[in-house]
């Protein structure tokens, strides 16, 4: 019976990142199919809604001693061994050689089926080098699940045939419940969202392109949702560009959808992505997007001049022109806005949920 299938989801946490959000979503729809789901989280962040049992492994980022690493591993090993899981779905980045050797020798052999997810085009973050060693381990896995066709192509180039693409899902029902919540801002704005732990999201590009666009003069502000160590640098940049009165840092928001739906349009300036949740969630809210054509994902989401604008990667001047054009060209904006929500219907919760069920059922048989 379906209810007897036991699934362990291993994730860094249930907060902060895109892979973590996908892990939470997968826990929801696997639980809704009647599977017995347990989430194992290394870190305590718990921002995303999930379903199933939850076990915090007790890892502390501020402590990287041998004991701080071995204790969570022992806890995970004990629980995996005692619970006789049918599946492990691993959402971690897996770039540290010795840690992955330990997982392949002591964790995965305890489970009948192992599924690895790959969320970014940087394959070495998920399959450690030297690749010739780990190719043996990963070819033994049931499946590698990548979130975009471009990532899948990279895996094929490396010789992996045991892989499938399941793109990130949009939970339209949950978004629709949360998007109408009020916000304090009573001025028009465009939106950018992401973590600020590093400069991968390149908010500096977004700020520079915005500051030199027609938007400030038109009275359209820029809101940025997210937190991290580079935030002070970004604030300093707004002062340097004399746009500090128009750029607002709103910090992490547990409900970003109330901002998505009210934004004039959404801007993505990332160095790289996998299959960016923020783009599909903006479109699900009926909001057009302007994005760098970075690897990977945006070109599989954005239909240029139909639901948004794709811009040459890392070209701030082109991003600036696209931002201005999305505002000035009313006909273009109307087309992109009218197509936005429909353009991501194929990524609906129900559709992607069925793909995960098919994957589990086929692997089980």
Describe the structure.
The protein has 365 residues and is α/β, with parallel strands linked by helices. It has 2 domains: 2-169 and 348-364, Rossmann fold, CATH 3.40.50; 172-346, Glycogen Phosphorylase B (Rossmann fold, 3-Layer(aba) Sandwich), CATH 3.40.50. Helices cover 39% and strands 16% of the residues. It contains 14 helices and 13 strands. It has helices spanning 18-32, 66-83, 97-106, 131-140, 149-157, 172-178, 203-211, 231-240, 257-260, 277-284, 298-301, 316-328, 330-340, 349-364, and strands at residues 6-11, 36-41, 53-56, 87-90, 113-118, 143-146, 163-165, 189-193, 221-225, 247-251, 266-268, 289-292, 308-311. Strands 3-2-1-4-5-6-7 form a 7-stranded parallel β-sheet, sandwiched between helices. A 3-stranded parallel β-sheet has the order 8-9-10, with helices on one face. The protein has a 3-stranded parallel β-sheet with strand order 11-12-13, with helices on both faces. Strand 6 (143-146), helix 5 and strand 7 form a beta-alpha-beta unit. Helix 7 crosses helix 12 (316-328). The two termini are 12 Å apart. The mean pLDDT is 93.
Fill in the keyword field for this structure.
single chain, 365 residues, alpha/beta, Rossmann fold, 7-stranded parallel beta sheet, 3-stranded parallel beta sheet, 14 helices, 13 strands
């Amino acid at each position: 019976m379906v209810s007897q299938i036991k699934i362990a989801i291993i994730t860094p946490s249930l907060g902060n990142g895109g892979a973590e959000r996908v892990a939470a979503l997968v826990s929801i729809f696997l639980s809704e199919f009647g599977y017995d789901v347990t989430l194992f989280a290394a870190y305590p962040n718990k921002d995303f809604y999930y379903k199933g049992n939850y076990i915090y492994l007790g890892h502390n980022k501020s402590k990287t001693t041998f004991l701080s690493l071995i204790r969570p591993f022992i806890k995970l090993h004990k629980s995996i061994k005692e619970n006789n899981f049918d599946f492990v779905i691993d959402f971690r980045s897996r770039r540290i050689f010795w840690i992955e050797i330990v997982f392949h020798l002591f964790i995965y052999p305890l489970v009948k089926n192992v599924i690895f997810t790959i969320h970014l085009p940087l394959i070495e973050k998920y399959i450690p080098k030297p690749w010739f060693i780990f190719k043996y381990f990963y070819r033994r896995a049931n499946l590698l699940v990548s979130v975009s066709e471009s990532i899948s192509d990279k895996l094929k180039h490396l010789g992996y045939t045991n892989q499938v693409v399941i793109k990130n899902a949009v939970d339209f029902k949950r978004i629709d419940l949360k998007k109408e919540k009020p916000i304090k801002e009573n001025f028009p704005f465009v939106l950018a969202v992401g973590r600020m732990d590093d400069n991968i999201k390149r908010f500096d590009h977004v700020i520079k392109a915005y500051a030199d666009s027609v938007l400030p003069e038109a009275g359209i502000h820029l809101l940025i949702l997210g937190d991290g160590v580079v935030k002070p640098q970004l604030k300093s940049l707004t002062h340097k560009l004399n746009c500090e009165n128009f750029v607002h840092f709103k910090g992490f928001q547990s409900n970003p959808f109330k901002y998505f739906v009210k934004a004039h349009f959404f801007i993505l300036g990332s160095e790289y992505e996998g299959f960016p949740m923020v783009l599909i969630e903006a479109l699900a809210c009926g909001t057009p997007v302007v994005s760098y054509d970075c690897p990977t994902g945006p070109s599989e989401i954005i239909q240029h001049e139909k639901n948004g604008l794709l811009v040459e990667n890392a070209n701030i001047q082109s991003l600036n022109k696209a931002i201005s054009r999305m505002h000035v060209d009313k006909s273009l904006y109307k087309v992109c806005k009218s197509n936005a929500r429909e353009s991501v219907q194929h990524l609906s919760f129900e559709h992607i949920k069925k793909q995960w069920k098919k994957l589990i059922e086929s692997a089980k048989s």
